[in-house]
């Protein structure tokens, strides 16, 4: 009986290690300037804020991930980025299944309030996330998504809600995070 | 029993410090989590 008890204690302590490790990562990321891998980070503070004329977003063509922070709530995460005809887009996959909905809260938050800041190569840009659900641009962006990150994604996946697609629109367009 | 508390406390503190201060550990764990979540969701 004593051996079983000791064995259970050892197993319990061993299980404690990954739990504490992941909890530490999640908590420390929340208070940092930017995300830590898969864990959401705090507000994006460092980096010059880019203002002035709207940039040609084709410069993100060869950039794998960018840091995206919503103003409400002020949490940041790493996210794929796409460019199409000079505009920038971000996507969130797995939105049609339960694990995806638990994992991905930011698209729902972005639809409520699309004001965001993105940080690319150390520079910050104020943006508004505008969800796109249909239209010719969706087909083009999905083609670019397949080319850049692999997989077979089509406009139908966006229309069915499996992938949520957002344009990184300028902040001063009067748009919100609502769909169009 | 008191010894158990010390062991558990030591494991927690050791894990926290390892994750925070040992280079590469946080990146490794983040990659692991991302792999697990992505495979579970797909």
Describe this protein's structure.
The complex is a heterodimer of chains A (180) and B (42). Helix content of chain A is 34%, strand content 26%. Chain A has 5 helices and 7 strands. Chain A has helices at 2-30, 98-103, 106-112, 136-149, 155-159; strands at 48-50, 65-70, 76-84, 87-92, 115-120, 123-132, 164-170. Chain B has 42 residues and is mainly alpha-helical. Chain B has 2 helices and no strands. Chain B has helices at 2-21, 25-41. At the A-B interface, α1 and α2 of A face α1 and α2 of B.
Q: Would you summarize the structure shown here?
A:
The complex is a heterodimer of chains A (180) and B (42). Chain A is α+β, with helices and mostly antiparallel strands.
Which key terms come to mind for this protein?
heterodimer, A: 180 residues, alpha+beta, six-stranded antiparallel barrel, 5 helices, 7 strands, B: 42 residues, mainly alpha, 2 helices, 0% strand
Gyration radius of chain B (Cα, Å) is: 15 Å
Discrete helix count of chain B: 2
Work out the strand percent of chain A. Answer: 25-35%
Helix content of chain B: over 70%
Mean pLDDT of chain A: 89
Low-confidence stretches of chain A: none
* Count of helix runs of chain A: 5
What's the shape of chain A?
Answer: globular
List the helices and strands and how they pair.
The complex is a heterodimer of chains A (180) and B (42).
Chain A: H1 2-30, E1 48-50, E2 65-70, E3 76-84, E4 87-92, H2 98-103, H3 106-112, E5 115-120, E6 123-132, H4 136-149, H5 155-159, E7 164-170
Chain B: H1 2-21, H2 25-41
